[in-house]
C-alpha cells in the first residue's frame, strides 16, 4: 500500500498568500482584525462591580462584628427572671451602690464601706435561701502574707507582701450531702479599685453579678458540689486577695475549679479569654451557655505577653494548680483604671449576658459528678494535646475540641497541600516551579508594601498631629489612617508580583507556543497569572498554618479556615486536570463561596482585636518618655496591615486585569486624605471627656539620708503621662503654675522611671510634713562566713510602698515586722539588677520593718567611691492617698479630657522617695 501523502503546508501557505494578494490592502487589515477577535475576546471587569464587592466584604465583616459582640440580651427585672433566674436590674443596683462609694482602694474608708455593703447583702441571701440549701458567710481577715510564687508576666523579679486584708466569702452547698464540702467551684472577683476611679466596670460590675448569682443559686437544690463566692480585696495591688485566700483560707483545699470575673473596660459581652489546662470547664460551658462568648486567640495573645496585664486567674492556675475559666468585659478598653470607668458607659444587657451564662454554667457543674478531682500539673507536651481549642460563632454557638484533634486535622491539610503543590510543580515543570516562586514573591511584596505604607503614616503622624495617637477616642479613624494605606500597599505589592509573573509566563509561553497569536497568548498569560496570584493566598495561609501547628497555637484554626475554604471553592469551581483547557477568568462565585465561612468565623474577632489594641495605647508608656512617640502607631499599623494582607489576599487578586485598580487607589487616597484632614483640623479629637488621656499628677518629696539622720528634702509636683505624646496641650492650662517640661529631670519612682515629664517646685511646701518622710537605717553590718547587713525601715503613715533591692550587691533577704517573719530567705533574682518588693495593706498594717540583707560574693561594695550615690543599695517609695493644695489645684486646672491612671506600681497623690547609698 502506498503511504498516504501528507498535506503540503508550504503550498497551503503560498495559496493563502496568493489569495490575500488579490484583495485590497484594506480588506486584508479587516480580515486580520476579524480573525483576532474571533480567536480572543479580552475579558474586562467592571470597576463598579468590584468596588461594590469590596464594600460588601467590609460591610459583611462589620455586620459579623456587630452581631457577635454588640448584640446583647434584654435586661430582666426580678419579676421577669424569677427567684431562680438572673436579674440585671438587681445586679445594677449592687453596682450603683458600690460605685457611689467612689474610689475604694486597699486601706481606704470607702473600701470598708464597700465590704460592709457586700457582707450585708450576702447575709440577706443567707436568710432567704431555699430550705434545702445551706449558705455560709465568712468575713475572712488576713493578718499578713507574701507572694513570690508567680514567675511569669508582670511578676518576674517581684515579691508581693500584704497585710490587714478582708474578704467576704460565701459558700452555698446542699444541707444533706456531706461530700459537697469536699468538692467546690470557686467564683471570684475583687471589690477594691485603684485610687483613680470608682470602678464601675473594674470590678463593681463583677461583684454585682456575683451577688445576683449567689441569690439565684441559693434558690436551687440538688447540688453535688459546693459553690464558693469570693469577694476579695487587694487584687489591684498585685492579686493579693486571691493569693491570701488560696494559701490561708480553710475552704480553699476543697476547690476543684476556679472561675474569675474581670473587666478590662466596661460592659459589652463578658468573654472567656483564658481557660485550661483541663478542658472540662470550657466544654461544660459550651454545652449550656445561652449566649456563648469565647475566643482562644485572646488566650494566645495573653500568654504571649502582648497584653501586659494579669488577673486572679494566674494565682488559681500557677499557685493552686486549678483549672477553670477567666471572663472579662472588654468594651471601652481605653477607660480602664481611669475616672471614665463609670456606670453611664455600661450598655444595657451587659450584666444579663454574663449572669445568664454563668448561672447556667454553675448549675451544670454544681450538679455534675465529673468535676476534676485532682489539681493540674504544669503544662507539658502530653497535657498540651488535651487542651481545648474554642471559639464562638456570632455569639450564638460555640465550638470546642481538643488540641489533639486540631493537630490531626491540621497535619492532614498541611500534608495534602504539600503533596498537591509538589505534584503540580512536577507536572508543570519549569514554568510551574517559576510561577510558584513568583507567587510567593507576590505575597512577600504585598506584605512589604502594605507594611511600608502603613508604617510611613505611623512615623509621620507624631510630626504633624497634636497627639501622636489621634484615634483613641474614635477608633474607627484607624480605617482611614492605617487600613487605607495598607490596602493601597497590598494592592501595589501584589500587582508588582503579578507583572513579574506575567513577564515570566510570557517568556515561557513564547518558547512553548510559537504558533499561537500574540493576542490569544497575552490573554491566556494574564488569566493564568491571575490564577497564580489567587493561589498565592493558599501559600500564605499554608505557611501560617504550618507554623501554628508546629507551636501548638490554638488560634491556628483561623489559618485552617482561610486555607481550606478558599481552596475547596477553587477546586470545586475553577480547577482542571487537563492542559487542553485554557485558563478562564476567575468566577465571583469562587471568591464568595471561599470567603464566606472565614469571614463569618474570624472577621468580627479581627475587628475586636483592633479596638482592643487602640484602647491599650492610652496606657502604653510604662516608663513615660522611654519609648518613641511612634511606637503605639507602629503597633496599630502593623496589626492593621497584617489583617489586610491576611484577609484581602484573595479579593485583591481579582483586581489586576482591568478597571478596579484605579478605583481602589482613588478610594484609598480619598479616605486617607479626608480622615487626615479631620484629624489635623481638630474635627476628630484624639480624646474626649469619656475617653480621656492619662495624665498623672504626683506631689513628690525626695530625700536621701544615712543612719536615720534627718535628710534634706526636695519637694515638687511631677506630671507625666502613660499615653504617647508630649504634654504641650495640657501645659496651656497651667501657665501660672511654674511647670517646666522635658527630659532634664528624670524621676525614679522605683517601680518605673519618668524620663519625660513636667515638674514644678512652686508652692510645694504645704500639704505634707517632715514627720511623714520614711527613714532607712542601717543597724548592723557584720562579716562572718558571709556579709550580712540589718536594716530598719519606717514607712511612717504609709501602708503602701515599693522597695527595690540591688541584686548586683545582694543575693538574698528576709523581712520581719512586729517580730513576725513576713518574707523568708529564698528570694534571689530580679529584673535589670533590681528585686522589687511591693507592699500594700489595710489601716492596721505594720509600718516598721526589719530587713536582713545577704551580700553577694561578687559585690562591688569595696570598690565604690565614697559618696557615690549612682548605685544605691536600696530605693524606697512610700505612697499616701492625699492631695496637697498645689497638686489639687493642678488637677482642677487640667482639661476634662485628662484622667489619672492607677495601677499597683503607680504612686498615689503624695509620694516620698528615699534611698540607702551603697557606702552607708
From TrEMBL:
Transmembrane segments: 47-65, 440-464, 476-502, 557-577, 589-610, 630-652, 664-684
Composition bias type Basic and acidic residues, residue spans: 15-26
GO BP: proteolysis
GO cellular component, one term: vacuolar membrane
Source organism superkingdom: Eukaryota
Protein location: Endoplasmic reticulum membrane; Vacuole membrane
PANTHER family per UniProt: METALLOPEPTIDASE M28 FAMILY MEMBER, VACUOLAR MEMBRANE PROTEASE
Descriptive protein name: Vacuolar membrane protease
Organism whose genome encodes this protein: Papaver somniferum (Opium poppy)
Amino acid at each position: 500500500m502506498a503511504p498516504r501523502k501528507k498535506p503540503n503546508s508550504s503550498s497551503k501557505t503560498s495559496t493563502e498568500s496568493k489569495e490575500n494578494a488579490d484583495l485590497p490592502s484594506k480588506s486584508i487589515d479587516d480580515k486580520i482584525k476579524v480573525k483576532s477577535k474571533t480567536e480572543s475576546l479580552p475579558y474586562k471587569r467592571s470597576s463598579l462591580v468590584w468596588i461594590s464587592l469590596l464594600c460588601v466584604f467590609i460591610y459583611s465583616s462589620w455586620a459579623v462584628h456587630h452581631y457577635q459582640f454588640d448584640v446583647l440580651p434584654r435586661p430582666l427585672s426580678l419579676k421577669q427572671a424569677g427567684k431562680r433566674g438572673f436579674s440585671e436590674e438587681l445586679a445594677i443596683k449592687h453596682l450603683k451602690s458600690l460605685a457611689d462609694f467612689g474610689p475604694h482602694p486597699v486601706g481606704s474608708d470607702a473600701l470598708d464601706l464597700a465590704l460592709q455593703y457586700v457582707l450585708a447583702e450576702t447575709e440577706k441571701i443567707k436568710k432567704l435561701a431555699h430550705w434545702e440549701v445551706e449558705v455560709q458567710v465568712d468575713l475572712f481577715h488576713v493578718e499578713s502574707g507574701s507572694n513570690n510564687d508567680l514567675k511569669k508576666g508582670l511578676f518576674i523579679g517581684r515579691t508581693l507582701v500584704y497585710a490587714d486584708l478582708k474578704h467576704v466569702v460565701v459558700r452555698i452547698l446542699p444541707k444533706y450531702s456531706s461530700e459537697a464540702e469536699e468538692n467546690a467551684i470557686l467564683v471570684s472577683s475583687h471589690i477594691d479599685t485603684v485610687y483613680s476611679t470608682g470602678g464601675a466596670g473594674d470590678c463593681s460590675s463583677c461583684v454585682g453579678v456575683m451577688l445576683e448569682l449567689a441569690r439565684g443559686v441559693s434558690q436551687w437544690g440538688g447540688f453535688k458540689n459546693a459553690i464558693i463566692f469570693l469577694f476579695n480585696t487587694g487584687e489591684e495591688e498585685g492579686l493579693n486577695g486571691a493569693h491570701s485566700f488560696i494559701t490561708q483560707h480553710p475552704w480553699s483545699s476543697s476547690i476543684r475549679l476556679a472561675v474569675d470575673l474581670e473587666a478590662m473596660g466596661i460592659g459589652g459581652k463578658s468573654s472567656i479569654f483564658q481557660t485550661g489546662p483541663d478542658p472540662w470547664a470550657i466544654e461544660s460551658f459550651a454545652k449550656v451557655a445561652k449566649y456563648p462568648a469565647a475566643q482562644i486567640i485572646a488566650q494566645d495573645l495573653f500568654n504571649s505577653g502582648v497584653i501586659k496585664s494579669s488577673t486572679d486567674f494566674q494565682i488559681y492556675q500557677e499557685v493552686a494548680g486549678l483549672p477553670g475559666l477567666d471572663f472579662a468585659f472588654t468594651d471601652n478598653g481605653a477607660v480602664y483604671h481611669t475616672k471614665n470607668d463609670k456606670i453611664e458607659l455600661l450598655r444595657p444587657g451587659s450584666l444579663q449576658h454574663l449572669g445568664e451564662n454563668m448561672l447556667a454554667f454553675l448549675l451544670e457543674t454544681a450538679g455534675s459528678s465529673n468535676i476534676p478531682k485532682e489539681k493540674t500539673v504544669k503544662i507539658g507536651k502530653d497535657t498540651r494535646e488535651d487542651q481545648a481549642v474554642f471559639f464562638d460563632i456570632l455569639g450564638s454557638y460555640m465550638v470546642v475540641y481538643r488540641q489533639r484533634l486540631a493537630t490531626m486535622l491540621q497535619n492532614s491539610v498541611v500534608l495534602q497541600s504539600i503533596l498537591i503543590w509538589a505534584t503540580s510543580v512536577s507536572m508543570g515543570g519549569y514554568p510551574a516551579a517559576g510561577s510558584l516562586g513568583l507567587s510567593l514573591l507576590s505575597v512577600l511584596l504585598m506584605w512589604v508594601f502594605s507594611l511600608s505604607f502603613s508604617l510611613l503614616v505611623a512615623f509621620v503622624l507624631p510630626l504633624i498631629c497634636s497627639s501622636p495617637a489621634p484615634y483613641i477616642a474614635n477608633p474607627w479613624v484607624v480605617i482611614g489612617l492605617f487600613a487605607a494605606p495598607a490596602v493601597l500597599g497590598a494592592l501595589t505589592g501584589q500587582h508588582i508580583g503579578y507583572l513579574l509573573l506575567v513577564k515570566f509566563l510570557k517568556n515561557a509561553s513564547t518558547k512553548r507556543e510559537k504558533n499561537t497569536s500574540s493576542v490569544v497568548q497575552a490573554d491566556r498569560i494574564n488569566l493564568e497569572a491571575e490564577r497564580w496570584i489567587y493561589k498565592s493566598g493558599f501559600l500564605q495561609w499554608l505557611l501560617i498554618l504550618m507554623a501554628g501547628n508546629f507551636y501548638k497555637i490554638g488560634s491556628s484554626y483561623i489559618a485552617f479556615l482561610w486555607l481550606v475554604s478558599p481552596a475547596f471553592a477553587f477546586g470545586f469551581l475553577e480547577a482542571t486536570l487537563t492542559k487542553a483547557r485554557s485558563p478562564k477568568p476567575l468566577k465571583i462565585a469562587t471568591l464568595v463561596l471561599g470567603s464566606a465561612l472565614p469571614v463569618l468565623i474570624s472577621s468580627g474577632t479581627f475587628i475586636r482585636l483592633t479596638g482592643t489594641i487602640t484602647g491599650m495605647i492610652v496606657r502604653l508608656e510604662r516608663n513615660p518618655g522611654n519609648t518613641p512617640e511612634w511606637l503605639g502607631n507602629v503597633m496599630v499599623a502593623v496589626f492593621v496591615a497584617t489583617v489586610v494582607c491576611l484577609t484581602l489576599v484573595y479579593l485583591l487578586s481579582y483586581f489586576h486585569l482591568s478597571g478596579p485598580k484605579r478605583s481602589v487607589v482613588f478610594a484609598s487616597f480619598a479616605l486617607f486624605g479626608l480622615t487626615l484632614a479631620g484629624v489635623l483640623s481638630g474635627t476628630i479629637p484624639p480624646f474626649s471627656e469619656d475617653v480621656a488621656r492619662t495624665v498623672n499628677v504626683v506631689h513628690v518629696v525626695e530625700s536621701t539620708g544615712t543612719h536615720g539622720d534627718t535628710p534634706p528634702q526636695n519637694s515638687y509636683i511631677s506630671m507625666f503621662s502613660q499615653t504617647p505624646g508630649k504634654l504641650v496641650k495640657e501645659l496651656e492650662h497651667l501657665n501660672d503654675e511654674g511647670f517646666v517640661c522635658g527630659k532634664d529631670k528624670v524621676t525614679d519612682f522605683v517601680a518605673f522611671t519618668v524620663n519625660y515629664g513636667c515638674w514644678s517646685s512652686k508652692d510645694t511646701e504645704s500639704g505634707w510634713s517632715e514627720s511623714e518622710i520614711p527613714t532607712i537605717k542601717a543597724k548592723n553590718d557584720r562579716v562572718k562566713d558571709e556579709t550580712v547587713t540589718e536594716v530598719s525601715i519606717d514607712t511612717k503613715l504609709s501602708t503602701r510602698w515599693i522597695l527595690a533591692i540591688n541584686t548586683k550587691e545582694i543575693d538574698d533577704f528576709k523581712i520581719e515586722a512586729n517580730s513576725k517573719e513576713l518574707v523568708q530567705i529564698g528570694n534571689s533574682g530580679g529584673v535589670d539588677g533590681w528585686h522589687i518588693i511591693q507592699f500594700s495593706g489595710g489601716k492596721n498594717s505594720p509600718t516598721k520593718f526589719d530587713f536582713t540583707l545577704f551580700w553577694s560574693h561578687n559585690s562591688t561594695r569595696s570598690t565604690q567611691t565614697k559618696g557615690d550615690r549612682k548605685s544605691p543599695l536600696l530605693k524606697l517609695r512610700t505612697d499616701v492617698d492625699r492631695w496637697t493644695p498645689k497638686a489639687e489645684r493642678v488637677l482642677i486646672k487640667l482639661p476634662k479630657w485628662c484622667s489619672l491612671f492607677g495601677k499597683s506600681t503607680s504612686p498615689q497623690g503624695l509620694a516620698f522617695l528615699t534611698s540607702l547609698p551603697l557606702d552607708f
